[in-house]
Design a protein that fits this description.
single chain; 365 residues; mainly alpha; two-stranded antiparallel sheet; 8 helices; 79% helix
């Protein structure tokens, strides 16, 4: 064989000399080592050729890529170490998608947390500045922006609202008392009518009084309709129109406080050093000052406009309602039923039709 010839040839080779001039191993040992190396190289080539033939057979048979297996012990090993590539692919894809979704969720949560933290930081800084400004104003150490004309108008509105609230309270009390009187007159008229039928000797007298009480009761219900319209209009003026204007005034006063707080902060920084850090802070403070100045001026303009329209609306509403109240009260106590009904028609007030099943407006309150 080829290996035997190689072994015999290796035995006749010269013994090499190493770099130190010493002889190497014994001739037998060296030749055997070289022969073993050559034999291993030949075996390896034979194994590669066999593996190539096996690979060609596999390629010819054409296995499905999804059915290909990874063998832990080499080609043709035991089946215990076989792992289907399809399962590896599916598990890796599932792990990748779940990890990516978890990363996206974590990034979204982190973004929300950062946004909330930034909002709390700005809110805390703004609250601190406004509180500091308010305390300084209260103790007379800080300056504040004052619009004397506008503040006088605001004070007049607040005083007017308090007085109108008192009118509203008294008008409601009058309505409740007058409603009780009308109900008493109605019951008294029914009692007189019943006694007129059961007392022949006093039939006429009881009958006259029954008719009088029924007429007073009818006129009283008409007057109650007029007073109710008056109360409803005053309530709308006080608790809706005036209150809306006062809400805008509260926003304006808050904006004024913020404006003065950032103005004081900018003035304080302008008196400090002029290094790079201080200049950067001053630029930021200047921007915030301008933002709050614009907000203050916008709300100031809104308050002036609303005060103007409120005054016009108040005059219109009160002119109509005071005229209604006067005419209705005068007609009722003068006993002028026709004038009382005309007053309600003049102001488009509709009463509950007689015999209606629904309770009256007073019973619903």
């Amino acid at each position: 064989m080829m290996s035997d010839s190689i072994m015999s040839k290796a035995a006749t080779m010269e013994i090499p000399i190493n770099s130190n001039g010493d002889t190497g191993n014994l001739p037998e040992d060296d030749s055997l080592e070289q022969a073993a190396k050559l034999q291993w190289s030949l075996d390896e080539k034979v194994g590669i050729s066999r593996g190539t033939r096996d690979l060609q057979q596999v390629m010819v048979s054409g296995p499905n890529l999804n059915e290909t297996s990874i063998v832990s012990g080499g080609y043709g090993g035991t089946a215990e170490g076989i792992i289907p590539t399809s399962s590896i692919k599916g598990s890796s894809m599932h792990h990748s998608s779940s990890s990516s979704s978890s990363m996206m969720s974590e990034e979204a949560s982190r973004g929300v947390a950062v946004e909330k933290l930034e909002f709390m930081k700005k809110w805390g800084l703004n609250t601190y500045k406004c509180t500091k400004q308010m305390i300084s104003e209260r103790f007379g150490r800080g300056s504040r922006t004052v619009d004397l004309e506008l503040e006088a108008q605001i004070e007049v509105l607040r005083d007017t609202k308090r007085k109108y609230e008192n009118v509203l309270r008294l008008a409601r009390a009058l309505t409740n008392h007058f409603y009780s009187m009308v109900q008493t007159q109605h019951a008294l008229g029914d009692t007189f009518a019943d006694l007129s039928q059961k007392s022949p000797e006093l039939r006429d007298e009881f009958g006259y009084n029954a008719e009088t009480q029924k007429l007073l009761c009818k006129n009283g219900e008409t007057l109650l309709g007029a007073i109710n319209f008056f109360v409803s209009s005053i309530n709308t003026l006080v608790n809706k129109t005036m209150e809306d204007t006062l809400m805008t005034i509260k926003m304006y006063e808050s904006a004024r406080l913020e404006f003065d707080a950032y103005r004081a902060d900018l003035e304080e920084l302008s008196l400090g050093p002029r290094d790079a850090v201080a200049m950067a802070r001053m630029e930021t403070a200047q921007q915030q000052y301008q933002v709050h100045k614009d907000k203050y001026e916008r709300l100031r303009s809104d308050v002036i406009i609303k005060l103007k329209f409120l005054e016009e609306n108040k005059v219109k509403v009160m002119h109509k309602q005071l005229l209604l109240f006067h005419n209705a009260i005068s007609a009722y106590f003068a006993g002028n039923q026709q004038q009382l009904e005309q007053t309600l028609q003049q102001f488009n007030i509709k009463l509950k039709p007689p015999g209606a099943d629904k309770p009256s407006w007073l019973e619903e309150q």
